[in-house]
Structures are given as structure tokens and as C-alpha cells.
Predict the 3D structure of the following.
Amino acid sequence: MGLESGSPLISVIVPVYGVERYLDRCVESIVDQTYRNLEIILVDDGSTDACPAMCDGWVKRDARIRVVHKANGGLSSARNAGLDVATGSLIGFVDSDDWIDPAMYETMADWMRDHEDADVVMCGTMREYEGGRREPVDAQFPERGFSPEQTVHDFLYHRNRMASASWNKLYDARFFRGNDAVRFPEGLNNEDYVMLAQVSPRWSGL
């Protein structure tokens, strides 16, 4: 998709803590996306290993990368710090011990462009084990849209992976801005679930 006119900026927020073994592969998978109009925000959550220096090194390698260094506050705090500085009209989250398919954001952005009432797009995931074995997760679901009522129902009853995670979705940034901006709850477990509980009643399509 590249940087052609009308290509929305996607802010990709990556919380970083204690993942020096995985960080380069994670960031490489984002930098190498076929969708080029990205703002990549690495949030160093007070990591005590090599991650802070690795994040700074990535800034020198790609002008689309920004780094936020902060005291350790946990996953929710790091994601919220990224949301506070994100400028894109679309928002994505990637965990720093994961990596993503090269066409992930192009595929989801295309879907959102072709379905103007979609506020959130969700994709399938792949689980990779030591030794290289891969197992698809929810990849069997066909492409489909959900009404707001279906979204809330499936979220409450944990159907169609609606309450699965924040990192397999692309969001309209308006969820995270304004007086009723959604944020991740700090100091709680299952932060993805709580954040999605705030978002799901307001989805107009998927």
C-alpha cells in the first residue's frame, strides 16, 4: 500500500520489558510490513536488560520509530504511554516477544477501507513453538462483519475470539482519544479483556 495519498497513518505500540532475546525479530517484522505508512512506538518500560539500548538503536535505523523511556509500570502502563503520544488515525498493538506477518497491517487496513462502517478489524494468529512447529489459531474463521449487538454478545459469551487479545486487532484511533478515551487498566490482570470490554459496545462493525 505504501505512502500513497489517502493511506492512513497506523501507530503501532510495542511495550518493551525484558525481551532482549526477541525484540529485534519483533521490530523487524513491523519495519518490514508491506504497509509502509507506520508510526512505530517502542515503549521501554524500565527494562533492566539490553532493551533500552536496542530501542535507541532502532531509532537510528528507521525514521518511523519513536522510543518512550519510562519507569517500570507494567504492560498496561506501557501501552497507555504509547497511546498518549500516538498520532495515527489507526492504532495497533504488538507484544515485544511476538512477530507479525509481513502483510498483516496492509490486509487489515484494506478491509477497513473497503468496509467504511468498520471501527475494528481482527485477524487470526499463529502459535510458534520451540523447534519451529507452527499451529494456526482461529485461522478457520471466514471473513465476516459483526453488528454492534453481535459484537457485545460474542464478547460476553467469549465467542469468535472476540475477547481474545488486543494485539490481533486494528482500531480506529478515536476509541483512544477525547473525553471518553479508552485506556488499559493499570494494576489489574487480564488488562486486554477489560480494555476490550470498554471498546466492544462502541464497535460499529468488524
In short: The CA atoms of residues 16 and 44 lie 5 Å apart.
